[in-house]
Amino acid sequence: MSESKAQQKARDARRLAQQSVKGATWKNRPPGYDAERMRKVRELYGRAPRFMIEESFNPLTIKSNNICIACDWHIPFYDANLMSEMFKTCDEYGIKEIAIPGDFWDCDNFSRFTNLTQSGLSWSQTFRGETEEVATVLSALVERFKGVYFCRGNHEKRWMDQNLGKVNLADIFKLTGINNGYLTTNDDHIVLESGGEIWLLCHPRNFRQTPLSVGRDLCAKYRCNVFVAHGHAFAQGRDRSGRYQIVDGGGLFDAAALEYLRNTSTFPAVQGGYYLIQDGEAIPFRNERGANIDLKARLKRAVSL
Fold first, then answer.
1. What is the rounded CA–CA span in Å between residue 69 and residue 146?
2. Which pLDDT value is given to residue 293?
3. Domain 61-295 has CATH 3.60.21.10
4. Could you tell me the pLDDT band of residue 14, with boundaries at 50, 70 and 90?
5. CB of 169 within 8 A of CB of 119?
């Protein structure tokens, strides 16, 4: 079907308008525009233009040949018995330092998945209770250990995002009233130097069902040993070259208290635990009580009835 003269004029007008927009864009941002802009920035601020985020950028590197690594506590949904076992292990091995790579707080009240109207609780009531429980555990940590180190996880980031990024990880810890005895970083990782080895203790955005797969990719990218939090799996292995150690960090969470774990899914079973890193080598301590939610066992008992 042929176009009418009016339709042809309208189409030509639209094409001309599009070309005009492209021409204006080229005029305002010609080739070399970004390079010239960055040259001016470097002249003014130096070659590392971090001037806008310098105050919040605080990488944390620690040196220790005898340290405990325990991620994903999700307080108040943590396993108090596993924490007690960890304290005994640290006493036995002479551990005086502990690093916690994210999700020490649960911040469930700031989750977009939580429906507080159904629970009948207000934001202030529920978050106040979490803060009080964190204060109790944090007090025990700073009393027992000479060095306590935190980086942010995706759960602490909930709180930071709700406050539009105008607060940092140290600010949320200050809500406990405990201001000394620990160090925090807004990064999602801590760098550990131990026994001549470099470890990346991280809480990555990535999650996969295959154990150690995230860690192997991180090893290939950063070429160092990797401790992976966030996945709630507990596994240990090597990267593809065999040079670097990889661990899935488990966690000190209480799986029975995490509501989403009761949903039927193809995600791998979670497994709690923690690690010691001594002279660069990772030593695993698995939660022998398991994940606390064993659907397969319940199904087996039901079939036998």
1. 14
2. 52
3. yes
4. confident
5. no
